[in-house]
């Protein structure tokens, strides 16, 4: 069983452990309880585990929306403060680390505080509690020849994972994971993979560069993909051209249709007060659109010019570049499942052998135009005060990486930041081809294909397959190991204090210093959820107490799930970790100076502890440090080590508007099971609207006392005048 339900030891209630998602949370009752098994079929929605307890109340330690349905499933009401008369009810509580459903026969009332949601029964009695993991797995694997026309038949089945063709499929829990694809001599489809007749066709020339960019559309529309000369989308009696600007148009169709589905679904099973619905300038009959078949609805969506919709669209989360190569076809279901915008570049800009690896090399100046955000520069650059980095600053590479025997290095003038600099070219560059993908408009950027991408996640198939294997995880505690193999870097070793700062997640945290080569091998082979390595890396491998451990030459079975290798030129060692068993990690592409590396390490630690995934964590770190552009993610960039207390993850921007109020922007990102289309609400008194993720919530005036109460709910990153701090450190005068 993926979910365990046990009595609490020090309070009245239950501990719920989801071994798939590595989460644990508590449900409180008004008396001691002994859970006993209950038929899972007793619940209106499907559940993985069900128990019954005798109680007069159910309380969870988070603010949530309570949805009430009658015994036959009819939606009666939802909210966070209301009462219902005697009756038989199915009740859902969201968000929670698992899907949480109650069923009972009694009148009841719902109440919330700034930290809890409570349901009090008028008559204490038997309450059934059902839990469903948010984990999703493919129904099977499609085998196909990899020529474009055969592959079209496989891509046409990606939408078989959809649990509905209504606008509710914009909820992540109703999309399902697409079936996998693997090369083979014959086309074979598993029995459980059944096509969905949505009435939508996508017509593209039988070439990879046209097929790959439409995989997310094929999945989300459950569309048949067929060969043709003129790229277009077709429905019954309508056609929408995908030229000129093929890739840009496919991205527009995805963003526009998803947004309009989120607006239309408020006419269905979940009639919530959605901010985007209330503020849209689109004058459409949403009730009629909701009732239309998918193809007819999509046709009417696309009758609306994109220019009319674009101003209200959120920034999309992910763009994935998939090189038009048959070797990359197995990645397509994963890319589609993330609803990524997809590009398929036939050519890519290589980085010449004489190209530097300074800040300009990574496009940092282009991505962070505000000088206030560029507080640190790498070795070979200039210090924050404009002077050269002095002898006290050293890099995290070994002697062969260009450092002096004492670890000190001389600073250089600002011209070394450019792409023509050569001093920072290291061992990684000598052995690996760098490529410079075209810039993206999305928060995150992934790369599938040969080469090491600058400023993008190097995504790999083996890492994405391990995402599916996460269901084999058995421990309910999250293990973090901090390894510091250099005396001069002990300051970052204090990062251990930043992990485990959670009241809802159990962490096992260990710090070790100066490991030998054999001890480092044992660490890498151990079952650790997150490894934070602090030390030196060069072309000989990872420095240990007495010698180096080169993962590219070692036959290791890696047990570490995710990692940060905070050392110079750690890309190849991180890539080896992923190939040998890890899901993903953050690595460097060049020499990194110790001081900014320490700062970045502490930022990443707090973000991972707060539930951020690898890609979004690095995105936030880059806002604070221009040296963040020397780091990339390898493997599965969606990897997390725990869930955010709120489900989605949030970054706040705060500015002092007046003497007694503040201006607040909350940017919320999809994360783990709380994917695109999840509902979220900012828990500030007076703010009642729901928003769909991804979103930016703007509040012009927040009273100081309300802001203070809000920041006490959860530890989150805050940018104040472009400088990063944390809600537990920010003092409101």
Structural class: alpha/beta
E-strand count: 41
Fraction in beta strands: 25-35%
For the residues shown, what is the average pLDDT?
A: 84
Helix content range of the residues, please? Answer: 10-25%
Distance between the termini: 50 Å
What is the rounded Rg?
26 Å
CA-based shape = globular
Largest sheet: 12 strands, antiparallel
What would you note in describing this structure?
With 733 residues, the protein is an alpha/beta fold. 20% of the residues lie in helices and 28% in strands. Strands 1, 2, 3, 4, 5, 6, 7, 8, 9, 10, 11 and 12 form a twelve-stranded antiparallel beta sheet that branches. The longest helix has 19 residues, at 246-264. The chain is globular and about 70 Å long. The model is unreliable at 353-396, 398-430, 471-475 and 501-505 (pLDDT under 50).
Summarize the structure.
With about 725 residues, the chain is an alpha/beta fold. It is about 20% helix and about 30% strand. A hairpin with a 4-residue loop joins β9 and β10 (about 100-105).
């Amino acid at each position: 069983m993926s979910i365990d339900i046990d009595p609490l030891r020090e309070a009245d209630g239950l501990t719920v452990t989801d071994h798939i998602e590595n989460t644990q949370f508590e449900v409180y009752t008004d008396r001691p309880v002994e859970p006993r098994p209950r038929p899972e079929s007793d619940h209106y929605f499907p559940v993985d585990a069900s128990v019954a307890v005798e109680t007069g109340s159910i309380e969870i330690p988070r603010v949530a929306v309570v949805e009430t349905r009658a015994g036959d499933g009819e939606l009666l009401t939802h909210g966070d403060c209301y009462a219902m008369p005697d009756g038989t009810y199915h009740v859902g509580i969201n968000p929670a680390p698992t899907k949480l459903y109650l069923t009972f026969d009694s009148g009841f009332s719902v109440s919330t505080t700034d930290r809890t949601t409570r349901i009090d029964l008028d008559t204490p009695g038997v309450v059934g509690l059902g839990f469903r993991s948010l984990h999703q797995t493919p129904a099977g694997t499609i085998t196909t020849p990899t020529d474009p026309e055969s592959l079209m038949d496989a891509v046409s089945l990606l939408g078989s994972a959809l649990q509905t063709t209504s606008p509710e499929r914009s909820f992540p829990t109703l999309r399902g994971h697409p079936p996998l694809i693997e090369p083979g001599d014959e086309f074979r489809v598993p029995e459980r993979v059944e096509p969905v007749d949505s009435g939508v066709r996508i017509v593209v020339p039988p070439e990879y560069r046209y097929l790959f960019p439409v995989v997310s559309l094929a999945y989300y529309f459950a569309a048949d993909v067929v060969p043709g000369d003129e790229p277009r989308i077709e429905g019954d009696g309508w056609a929408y051209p995908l030229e000129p600007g093929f890739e840009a148009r496919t991205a527009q169709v995805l963003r526009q249709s998803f947004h309009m589905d989120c607006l239309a679904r408020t006419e269905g099973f979940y009639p919530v007060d959605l901010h985007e619905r209330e503020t849209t300038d689109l004058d459409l009959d949403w009730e009629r659109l909701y009732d239309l078949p998918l193809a007819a609805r999509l046709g009417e969506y696309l009758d609306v010019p994109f220019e009319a919709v674009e101003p209200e669209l959120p920034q999309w989360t992910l763009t994935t570049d998939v090189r038009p190569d048959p070797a990359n076809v197995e990645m397509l279901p994963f890319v589609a499942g993330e609803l990524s915008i997809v590009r398929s570049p036939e050519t890519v800009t290589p980085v010449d052998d004489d190209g530097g690896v300074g800040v300009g090399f990574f496009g940092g100046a282009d991505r962070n135009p505000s000088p206030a955000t560029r507080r640190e520069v790498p070795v070979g650059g200039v210090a924050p005060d404009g002077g050269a980095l002095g002898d006290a600053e050293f890099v995290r590479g070994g002697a062969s990486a260009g450092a002096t025997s004492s670890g000190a290095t001389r600073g250089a003038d600002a011209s070394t930041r450019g792409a023509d600099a050569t001093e920072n070219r290291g061992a990684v560059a000598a052995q690996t081809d760098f490529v410079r993908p075209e810039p993206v408009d999305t928060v995150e950027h992934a790369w599938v294909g040969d080469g090491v991408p600058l400023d993008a996640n190097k995504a790999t198939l083996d890492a994405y397959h391990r995402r599916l294997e996460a269901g084999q995880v058995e421990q309910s505690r999250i293990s973090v190991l901090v390894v510091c193999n250099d005396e001069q870097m002990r300051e970052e070793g204090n990062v251990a204090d930043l992990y485990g700062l959670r009241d809802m997640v159990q962490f096992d945290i260990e710090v070790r210093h100066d490991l030998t080569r054999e001890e480092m091998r044992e660490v890498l082979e151990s079952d650790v959820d997150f490894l934070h390595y602090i030390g030196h890396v060069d072309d000989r491998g990872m420095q240990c107490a007495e010698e180096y451990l080169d993962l590219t030459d070692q036959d290791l079975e890696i047990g570490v799930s995710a990692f940060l290798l905070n050392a110079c030129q750690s890309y190849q060692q991180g890539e080896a970790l992923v190939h040998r068993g890890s899901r993903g990690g953050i690595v460097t592409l060049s020499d990194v100076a110790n001081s900014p590396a320490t700062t970045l390490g502490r930022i990443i630690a707090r973000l991972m502890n707060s539930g951020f995934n690898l890609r979004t964590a690095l995105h936030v770190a880059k806002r604070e440090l221009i040296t963040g552009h020397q780091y990339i993610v390898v493997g599965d960039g969606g990897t997390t080590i725990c869930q955010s207390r709120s489900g989605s993850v949030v970054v706040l921007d705060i500015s002092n508007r007046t003497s007694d109020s503040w201006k607040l922007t909350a940017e919320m990102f999809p994360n783990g099971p709380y994917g695109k289309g999840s509902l979220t609400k900012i828990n500030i008194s007076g703010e009642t609207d729901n928003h769909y993720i991804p979103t930016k919530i703007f509040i012009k005036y927040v009273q100081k006392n309300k802001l203070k109460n809000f920041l006490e709910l959860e530890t989150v990153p805050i940018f104040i005048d472009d400088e990063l701090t944390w809600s537990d450190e920010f003092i409101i005068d």
